[in-house]
Structures are given as structure tokens and as C-alpha cells.
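Lecture 7 notes: from sequence to structure.
We start with the chain below.
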Amino acid sequence: MEAFLHQVVSGLATGGIYASLALALVMIHNATRLVNFAQGEMAMFATYLCWTMLQAGWPYWAAFGSTVVLAFVLGVAIERIIIRPVERAPVLTVVVVFIGLLLILNSLAGWIFTYTIKSFPSPFPSGPPFGLHIVSWHELGAIVVTLCVLLLVFLFFRFTPLGLAMRAAAQNPESSRLVGIRVGWMLALGWGLAAAIGATAGMMVAPIVFLDPNMMTGVILYAFAAALMGGIDSPGGAVAGGFIVGVLENLVGAYVIGTELKLTVALVLIVGVLVVKPAGIFGRTIVQRV
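Predicted C-alpha cells for the same chain:
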């Protein structure tokens, strides 16, 4: 029973990371109706920036906060410089731009920081918390940090004028322009917020998977599975999907197919959801009159 509980709690910790990335994917999809394939590489590059600050002697939480700010600026800059010029281009063109951005960030990280695997420190103590061997301090801390981030994002979009303006710009750009909302800048801020959320996920997962330019490959796949399972147009569904995928990954990997094939869980979930319920568990099926 203790081993089972450990798998569940560990799954919730990694599931929170998947939920953060899935939320970032959903935010950009709701704003642009496109999927940002470079979301994982943006989080990876931001994590390298945090590692650089830590190597320079910065306190962990100062480096953490500075990285979130830098990731936000990076997200805004990418939207303004790279995405904005092709926003009205054919979908295939934009997809190629996203894939190109993924490869550029991956290669740039390898060129600057090398492809040598590096350890990334955890801000939490080692050993079991409160004598509980079913969870580590880092897993418990990752759950708390993730929940705090998700709560702050919810409060921002629900109760602040800027958050409400960003939601309006994403849902109905034409009407938003009529009431004076600067839709272009709202979308850019959405990109920045998504990048900041992704950076948080990257810094939480780096102590587990170690730091290298390809560290987010498997993580972003699980995040895609979470977003599709919960509903690619549902932020709350993406968060729920992240925790579900995290727990399923651990349980299926530990008791059914083994750890070597755990990545196939995400692929099976993606295919299964697209076949059975393409809109996701919490997603909406949109019907249009033609």
C-alpha cells in the first residue's frame, strides 16, 4: 500500500508540472487557435537562464523570480517579433514557424550551454517530509508551487481588469476592439504569461530529469496529452488533465508496462482522446451553421 501511495503522490507532483505546461498550451490556443509546439523548448531555455544565475551565486528564489520575469519578456518578444508577422498566414506556415522556433531554441541552448547533462538544484530539503516515505520534499514542494501558480493565474483572469481584458481579447477580438481593448498587446501579454508558467514548470521538473537541451521532450508530450484529455479550449480541463495524466503515467508504468515504456502512455492517451472524444473531457463541441 505504501508503494501505491508513493506512486499516486509522485504522480500528482509530476502531474502538476504537466498541468502548468498544458495550461500554457491552452492559453495560446485560445488566443490564436494554434498549438505552440515550442512551449517546452521555451521552458527549457528559461530553466538554463535560472541555472546560469545559480552558478553565478544568486539565491535560489531570487533566480527563480528573475527567470519568471525574463521568461515573460521572452514570450512577449517572440509574439511581437516572430508570431505577429505571420498571424494571418496559412496554418501550415505558422506550424512551420513554431517548429522552426523549437529547433532554434534547442540548438541555441546546446550551443551556449553544451549538451552535457547538468544537475539542477532543488530548493527543498532532501529526505522524506515529516517522516512520510511516500513523498519527498521536492515532490511536495512542486505540488505546492504548482498549485500556487495555478491559483494566481485563476485569480488574475477572474478578478483583475487586465485579466478580464485578456480573456475578452482571446474570445472575441472584434468586439474587444470596439470597446477600446488593444487586442494585439493582450495577445502578446498572453504569450508572456504562458512562457512564465512554462518556465515555472521547467524549474520544477529540472531536478527530476536533469538539465539538458532535450529535457522537455517527454514532458511536453505528456502536457499535450493533458491538454487534449481535459479539452484544448478549457483551462480548467487542462489542469485536471495534467493531474490525471501524471497519476496514470506512474501507475501504468509501475504496475502494467514498466518504466521503459511509460512514454507510450501519453501517446495512447492522445490517440484515445482524439478517437473517442476529440473535444476532451471538459471541452466544448462547437457546431456552426454552414
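Points to note: The mean pLDDT is 85. Residues 2-32 form the longest helix (31 residues).
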